[in-house]
Amino acid sequence: MCIIIDTNVLVSVFENKSDNHHDFLPVHDWISKGKGKVVYGGTKYIDEIGAKYRAFFIELRRAKKAIYIDNEKVDEQEKIASSKIQHKDFDDQHLVGLLVESKCKLICSLDERAYQFFTSSKFFSPSSQKPKIYSNKANRKILKDNNIAEVCKPCSASTNAQKKIFDKLNSN
Fold this sequence. Notes:
alpha/beta, Rossmann fold, five-stranded parallel beta sheet, 7 helices, 47% helix
């Protein structure tokens, strides 16, 4: 499985002291212990995640637990998304751009306003291409191998060295 993590849930997914970490623990465990990988990229996304998570994602990438999608390609898809939908609630074009460019099948977010855009047929057709949304532990059943996008293959369970990266984030 690979997943795009909206900035509104980064802390919830990766920091075990966050208030709602329990809802995002399945995502955390799938990445830290299982076959999961984080997908990231695009100028706006990179800016939004801040220095701490940029460094963390670079470390994950070196450990083959994150997939970087070229900023220019994501930015181009973001522009296309902006041209297809003009709506007051559509402020996550960069995430749609990342979904389209990566062909990632999962996104983790708490931005309910954005859900309709994350799965819009203007971007994802046929409907089987529409990403699934993880918003709490009730969605944990979508964290499975058939939701591994091609860009994330091959995938294998985390090694002990990969697991230590996650421990280091929470020890700071």
